[in-house]
């Protein structure tokens, strides 16, 4: 049976299977993301009224009670789906991410780790995705590259996210790197770290034994590095809107890397 006939046969044999699988994968992922994303606004309402006044809780569109309900429901559903999948490592990954997200935001003694730049960066780095395949990890060249490169990106995102929020952080006593060192210095540190990561990626491509991998890796990362530098030079560091826009651009570079990582050999 050729490939064109195979898929209709599979779909007719299990008509609900593809939809169920797609729904389960998306839901168990997005529910965890949703609950983590909602924890911070719930406990940082006063700060967000200064830094991000358009968010639902900060603007008054949602009441605190509604925020608590949303976080509770999505957290419970993400844990429930994680448990239903039957993978204890997955469940504990969800639980630990929830604990870190709570410790990052909640304003209690020894908590609200957002106030401490290094700890905040480690929290953001720790909740990057981890896949559990129930088999020993093989630290291949592409895996080592992807881990190192995405670690750089996570650190940059953790540092850069506070640059547009410097005004509110100062008012509420949050000693972020941007407050300590200034927006301009942290901005260029972040750009420098990303350019360093791209340089390592280019060197990684240059040492590849595969011609197509070498060409794609060098060309792809060279183009992204050039675009990053060009955009960084045009940012008005006195404009919160411009800095926020560049922060979102960094996220686009982050996701663009997922297209290049499979090409590394």
Automatic annotation (TrEMBL):
<feature type="transmembrane region" description="Helical">
    <location>
        <begin position="90"/>
        <end position="109"/>
    </location>
</feature>
<dbReference type="Pfam" id="PF01040">
    <property type="entry name" value="UbiA"/>
</dbReference>
<feature type="transmembrane region" description="Helical">
    <location>
        <begin position="116"/>
        <end position="133"/>
    </location>
</feature>
<feature type="transmembrane region" description="Helical">
    <location>
        <begin position="139"/>
        <end position="160"/>
    </location>
</feature>
<feature type="transmembrane region" description="Helical">
    <location>
        <begin position="186"/>
        <end position="205"/>
    </location>
</feature>
<feature type="transmembrane region" description="Helical">
    <location>
        <begin position="65"/>
        <end position="84"/>
    </location>
</feature>
<feature type="transmembrane region" description="Helical">
    <location>
        <begin position="241"/>
        <end position="261"/>
    </location>
</feature>
<dbReference type="InterPro" id="IPR000537">
    <property type="entry name" value="UbiA_prenyltransferase"/>
</dbReference>
<dbReference type="GO" id="GO:0016020">
    <property type="term" value="C:membrane"/>
</dbReference>
<keyword id="KW-0808">Transferase</keyword>
<comment type="similarity">
    <text>Belongs to the UbiA prenyltransferase family.</text>
</comment>
<keyword id="KW-1133">Transmembrane helix</keyword>
<keyword id="KW-0812">Transmembrane</keyword>
<protein>
    <recommendedName>
        <fullName>Homogentisate phytyltransferase</fullName>
    </recommendedName>
</protein>
<dbReference type="GO" id="GO:0016765">
    <property type="term" value="F:transferase activity, transferring alkyl or aryl (other than methyl) groups"/>
</dbReference>
<keyword id="KW-0472">Membrane</keyword>
<dbReference type="InterPro" id="IPR044878">
    <property type="entry name" value="UbiA_sf"/>
</dbReference>
């Amino acid at each position: 049976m050729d490939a064109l006939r195979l898929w209709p046969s599979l779909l007719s044999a299990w008509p609900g299977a593809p939809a169920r699988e797609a729904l389960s994968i998306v839901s168990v992922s997005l529910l965890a993301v949703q609950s983590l994303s909602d924890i911070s606004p719930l406990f940082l309402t006063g700060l967000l009224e200064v830094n991000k006044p358009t968010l639902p809780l900060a603007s008054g569109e949602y009441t605190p009670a509604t925020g608590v309900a949303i976080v509770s429901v999505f957290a419970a559903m993400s844990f429930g789906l994680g448990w239903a999948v039957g993978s204890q490592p997955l469940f504990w990954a969800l639980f630990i991410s929830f604990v870190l997200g709570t410790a990052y935001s909640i304003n209690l003694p020894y908590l609200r780790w957002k106030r401490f730049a290094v700890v905040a960066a480690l929290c953001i780095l720790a909740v990057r995705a981890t896949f559990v395949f129930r088999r020993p990890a093989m630290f291949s060249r592409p895996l080592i590259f992807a881990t190192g490169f995405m670690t750089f990106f996570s650190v940059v995102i953790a540092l850069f996210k506070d640059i547009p929020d410097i005004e509110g952080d100062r008012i509420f006593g949050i000693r972020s790197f941007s407050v300590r060192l200034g927006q301009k210095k942290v901005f260029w540190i972040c750009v420098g770290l990303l350019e360093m990561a791209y340089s390592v990626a280019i060197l990684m491509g240059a040492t590849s034994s595969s011609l197509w991998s070498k060409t794609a890796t060098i060309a792809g990362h060279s183009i992204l590095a050039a675009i990053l530098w060009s955009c960084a030079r045009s940012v008005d560091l006195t404009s919160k809107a411009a800095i926020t826009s560049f922060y979102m651009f960094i996220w686009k570079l982050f996701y663009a890397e997922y297209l290049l990582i499979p090409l590394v050999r």
